[in-house]
Amino acid sequence: MMKTAVLFPGQGAQAPGMARDFYEESVAARQVFEEASDVLGYSMEQRIFEGQDLELTEFTQPAILTASRAIAVSLNLEGAAAAAGLSLGEYSALVFAGALNFAEALQVVSARGKFMQEAVPAGVGGMTAVLKLDRKSIEGILEQLGLDVWIANVNCPGQIVVSGRLDALAAFKERAMEAGAKGCVDLPLSAPFHTKMLEPAAVRLQGVLEDVSVREPHPPVVFNVTARTEADPAIIRQLLTSQVMSPVLFEDSLRTLADLGIERMIEVGPGSTLKSFVKKTLKGVEIISVPDMESAKKAGLL
Length: 302
Description:
Blueprint: E1 4-8, H1 20-25, H2 27-40, H3 44-49, H4 57-74, E2 82-85, H5 89-96, H6 102-119, E3 125-131, H7 135-145, E4 149-156, E5 159-165, H8 166-178, E6 183-186, H9 199-209, E7 221-222, H10 233-243, H11 250-259, E8 264-268, H12 273-281, E9 286-290, H13 293-298
Parallel strand pairs: 1-2, 1-8, 2-7, 8-9
Antiparallel strand pairs: 3-5, 3-6, 4-5
Helix pairs in contact: 2-4, 2-6, 4-5, 4-6, 6-9, 7-8, 9-10
């Protein structure tokens, strides 16, 4: 049997109408939406299907968690050997692995989104994807500049995201292009996520996580901060706290999954961004994206 890992997308994958076909055809998916609405006190169906304030981080994060969970419970994913998620997607992975209760995870990510947005005023910071420039070169530029800009995401070879103050980002982009980058694409995010500037959000999130029940993940989850698995609930809380202000080592996490013998990866949730990251990072590993019923049927996962 092919050794399989399940991957979950993060913020940026959201789209109005995501998971609607699962909601319409799967009782289990509908129950996920209903639970989300009950827990958060607003209609998740309305939020997602009508796109109501879906771009606001405090609503985006629980919406993606809900859509990803609704798809996951509709699929045959028994026997998965590991899981991982990109940033916010780590919560979907932990729910999938039984380490977090879905209702509690919803409350945590709702607070997380609010804390992250409030940590830095709008218009102060941002994020930029750097294309075709290696990690070492980017680290060298950042060290030379000494400004408030840091590596935020290592997604795959040829795509690293930097994050920080807008003036520092402007200086970085100029130097990166001079160093051979093929492009610097500003992301539609209004805060410098996964940097030291988000420390106030991490401190507030730590307080929330202290009251949440965390269990050992089964299957194991590879974490963004360390690109390693972790079983200890206390350390998992620390990793989730640190993740807000630390780089997301997704490329490293994918390589860890490959080292664990994973031969197939299934991206569960809206979009297909992770599929491209896997293809650019690993050779010989099958990758399937399942954002809708049609792709699930084609993959034989229903």
